[in-house]
Design brief:
- The complex is a heterodimer.
- Chain A is of the alpha/beta class.
- Chain A is built from 14 helices and 8 strands.
- Chain A has 2 domains: about 300 residues, 3-Layer(aba) Sandwich (Rossmann fold), CATH 3.40.50.970; about 70 residues, no CATH class.
- In chain A, the strands form 2 sheets. Chain A has a 6-stranded parallel sheet with strand order 2-1-3-4-8-7, sandwiched between helices.
- In chain A, helix 1 runs antiparallel to helix 3.
- Chain A starts with about 25 loop residues before the first helix and ends with a helix.
- Chain B folds into 2 domains: about 180 residues, 3-Layer(aba) Sandwich (Rossmann fold), CATH 3.40.50.970; about 130 residues, 3-Layer(aba) Sandwich (Rossmann fold).
- In chain B, the strands form 3 sheets. Chain B has a 7-stranded mixed sheet with strand order 3-2-4-5-7-6-12, with helices on both faces. Chain B has a 5-stranded mixed sheet with strand order 9-11-10-13-14, with helices on both faces. Chain B has a two-stranded antiparallel ribbon with strand order 1-8.
- In chain B, helix 1 runs parallel beside helix 7, helix 3 packs parallel to helix 4 and helix 9 packs across helix 10.
- In chain B, helix 7 links the parallel strand 6 and strand 7.
- The N and C termini of chain B lie far apart (about 45 Å).
- By secondary structure, chain B is of the alpha/beta class.
- The chains are: A alpha/beta, B alpha/beta.
- At the A-B interface, helix 5, helix 6 and helix 14 of A face helix 3, helix 4, helix 5, helix 10 and strand 14 of B.
């Protein structure tokens, strides 16, 4: 285990672990929890490496340090429940069961990615597993999650929604608006604030007047509670109870999971807003190390068992990287697909500029132009590239004598359109 | 055919679609007990109950976002925003969520959401309640935009919008709510992307958007009676998808085009249409494409100022005549 987030080996005994407050669950559950947390961590480490190698574009937000929060919370979900998350959501997708291959392929922008390469790291989605997305706008997913809860309630189902946000999102207007509506309409939704201590680079005490975030929803009618987000069992217990209230009593709940991200906000983060000592302090409370320590000291799993889980996770991630490398980029011909559901609509109407042609928007000869679009795109040319321009010119009748004669209307046009 | 008001036509569309489909529901500010700020939802709470006609707090961004979420969850929400200026509070959810979700999640979900709202000046409501912002929504791929100008279109297009699987921005006009017109009783939806030719003529094409379709029609009558100019008057009815063929066909016949809109000139619908027309029918044009738009100012309150800030019949007549100037 060469990476810096290596679990297990060499951790000091005075590891800052609070006294465990929950009994260990059965062996299979413990194994599953460790397996998932390890898979997430190894995934994130490799994703970071792939980003450094420029295999991954855009932003990359890693969740290393938050594994207990993610796994503890998602293990509390029933199969029919919905999960919605922020842009730091690779772990959430993996915990919900999306194959690492499809998550990694999405980060690579490949066609086999779980969003077909259209969303990228911040916009993972797996409808089949009821993982309804990562969202790139802070607080933007909160109204959506209440809407999904409304649909679940409207359909008289027992499904609930787990709606995750960061500490920074509690300052958005959508936070208060959504809390109010969720409580007002008795929606089956649990809001989980993953308090990793920073809204990007601004620390909690510098961005929120109230730093006990579990209090921020109470005035809107959503009771809040807190869990140790570094303790997978505590997170699981508190979120389970909250989900029960939301589902059975139709009382939406908020849970604040107190946790920490070891890495920067994104890969482009010099981390000048915190000290190495602070990061080290939190690392001593590492959720994976501490859970591993408990299950091995308890004798439920041996060190060898855990090492085996870890090597399996690493192997799985290697396979995911290989899969992502080998997956093709999305077909350029599909660039305009799926902006709209076209069924049942007027076939001749004009929906998207350049939908069918690189010509001057929809040229009169557009029906012949499909191949040109493909050729240009494959050559990497923008559709307004030189070739197109010259072709466009050649298709026109020269202006000739008409040139300039349209001038007079130019000046008067604004007046005509104006307030006179 | 029965003659009904624009607001009643909308009300009929809502009622009929709610009767036909349990998954259709309404939410918005004062749509229930208050019966709607413009009474479009009158009587619906009584008929369908609080589950399906939901009064919301004043939280536009969250109302729209919840509509998107409910649509992702399989429902067909019709969200009412009290006036188009308030939709700016919801622009995040409209653009970043409603318009993008289907594409960015690779078509794993659809968002069959309707957002209804009125726009337009003339009631002295000043700069926060009177603007015409269809261009804002036209700009966004992923949204459909309807701008009905008659009671029949209001009903037929709203029914189509509710049945459509895409997010639809449905823009009504405050000054049209009381207007009467004949509405077919068959309850059939219209199709998006089909313009209406309100009047036929060979001399100039006038395209009027939203209420300006009616203004364009009045101007056309004046052009005919006072200036011997016969105008084609086209109401696009939906801006996205756009029935460009009908507009181009007309321009190729008349060789002149005037676009009339109530919104602002820069980056407006008319600017967009003018670009499309010159790109695709340049050789047919005998004059520059003319635009008649709202004044490039926040809408003022004082009556004479307000009246001067949006187009009237005489502006359209002048613009149409100007396309014949010096040629």
């Amino acid at each position: 285990m060469a990476t810096e987030e290596a679990t297990g080996a060499g951790m000091p005994d005075e590891a800052g672990v609070e006294q465990p407050i929950h009994d260990l669950p059965g062996e299979e559950t413990c194994r599953l929890i460790l397996q998932k947390m390890l898979l997430i961590r190894r995934f994130e480490e490799r994703a970071g490496e792939m980003y450094a190698k420029a295999r991954i574009g855009g932003f990359l937000h890693l969740c290393i340090g938050e594994e207990a929060t993610i796994v503890g919370a998602t293990q509390a979900l029933a199969d029919g429940d919905y999960l919605m998350s922020t842009y730091r959501e690779h772990g959430q997708a993996l915990a919900r069961g999306t194959e690492p291959e499809r998550v990694m392929a999405e980060l690579f922008g490949k066609v086999d990615g779980c969003s077909g390469g259209r969303g990228g790291s911040m916009h993972l989605f797996d409808f089949e597993r009821r993982f309804l997305g990562g969202y790139g706008i802070v607080g933007g997913s909160l109204p959506l999650s209440a809407g999904v809860a409304l649909a679940a309630d409207y359909g008289e189902t027992e499904d609930a929604v787990l709606s995750m946000m960061g500490d920074g999102a509690t300052n958005q207007g959508t936070f208060s608006e959504t809390m109010n509506l969720a409580a007002l309409w008795s929606l089956p939704v649990v809001f989980l604030v993953i308090n990793n201590q920073f809204g990007m680079g601004t620390s909690l005490e510098r961005h929120s007047a109230v730093t006990d975030l579990s209090q921020k929803s109470e005035g809107f009618g959503v009771p809040g509670s807190r869990c140790d987000g570094m303790d997978v069992l505590d997170t699981h217990a508190v979120v389970s109870n909250a989900l029960r209230c939301a589902r059975e009593e139709r009382r939406p709940q908020l849970v604040e999971a107190v946790t920490y991200r070891y890495r920067g906000h994104s890969m482009a983060d010099p981390e000048e807003y915190r000290s190495k000592e602070e990061v080290e302090e939190w690392r001593r409370r590492d959720p994976i190390n501490n859970f591993r320590k408990r299950v091995t000291e308890d004798g439920m799993l041996s060190d060898d068992d855990v090492e085996k889980l870890d090597s399996e996770a690493q192997k799985r991630i290697e396979e995911a990287v290989e899969f992502a490398e080998n997956s093709p980029f999305p077909d350029l011909a599909a660039l305009y697909d799926d902006v709209y559901v076209m069924e049942g609509s007027s076939p001749h109407a004009w929906w998207l500029v350049d939908q069918r042609s690189p010509e001057t928007h929809r040229g009169e000869a557009e029906r012949d132009a499909g191949d040109v679009a493909q050729e240009l795109a494959e050559a990497g040319a923008a559709y307004a590239g030189e070739d197109v321009t010259s072709e466009r010119r050649s298709r026109r009748t020269p202006r000739g004598d008409d040139q300039g004669e349209g001038e007079p209307a130019e000046e008067s046009r604004d007046e005509e359109g104006g307030a006179d | 055919m029965a003659e009904v008001r624009y607001r009643e036509a909308l009300n009929q569309a809502l009622r009929e679609e709610m009767q036909a489909d349990e998954s259709v529901f309404i939410m918005g500010e004062d749509v229930g007990v208050f019966q709607g700020a413009f009474k479009v939802t009158a009587g619906l709470l009584e008929e369908f109950g609080e589950k399906r006609v939901r009064d919301t707090p004043i939280s536009e961004n969250t109302i729209v976002g919840m509509g998107v979420g409910a649509a992702m969850g399989g429902l067909r929400p019709v969200v009412e925003i009290m006036t188009i200026n308030f939709s700016l509070l919801a622009m995040d959810q409209i653009v970043n969520s409603a318009a993008s979700i289907r594409y960015m999640f690779n078509a794993q979900v659809k968002v069959p959401l309707v957002i209804r709202m009125p726009q337009g000046g003339g009631h002295q409501l000043g700069p926060t309640h009177s603007h015409s912002l269809e261009a804002w929504f036209l700009h966004v791929p992923g949204l459909l935009v309807a701008v009905p100008s008659t009671p029949a279109d209001a009903k037929g297009l709203l029914k189509a919008a509710i049945r459509d699987d895409n997010p639809v921005i449905f823009i009504e006009h405050e000054a049209l709510y009381g207007k009467k017109g004949e509405v077919p009783e068959n309850g059939e939806p219209l199709r998006f992307g089909e313009a209406a030719v309100r009047r036929e003529g060979d001399d100039v094409t006038i395209v009027g958007v939203s209420r300006m379709a009616a203004t364009a029609l009045q101007a056309a009558e004046t052009l005919a009676t006072e200036h011997e100019v016969e105008a084609d008057v086209i109401d696009p009815r939906t801006l996205r998808p756009l029935d460009l063929d009908t507009i181009l066909e007309s321009v190729r016949k008349t060789n002149r085009a005037v676009i009339v809109e109530e919104g602002w000139p820069h980056g407006g619908v008319g600017a967009n249409f003018a670009a499309l027309i010159q790109e695709q029918a340049f050789d047919y044009l005998d004059a520059p494409v003319a635009r008649v738009t709202g004044a490039d100012i926040p809408m003022p309150y004082s009556k004479p100022l307000e009246q001067a800030a949006f187009p009237h019949e005489e502006h359209v007549v002048q613009a149409a005549l100007a396309t014949f100037r010096d040629l």
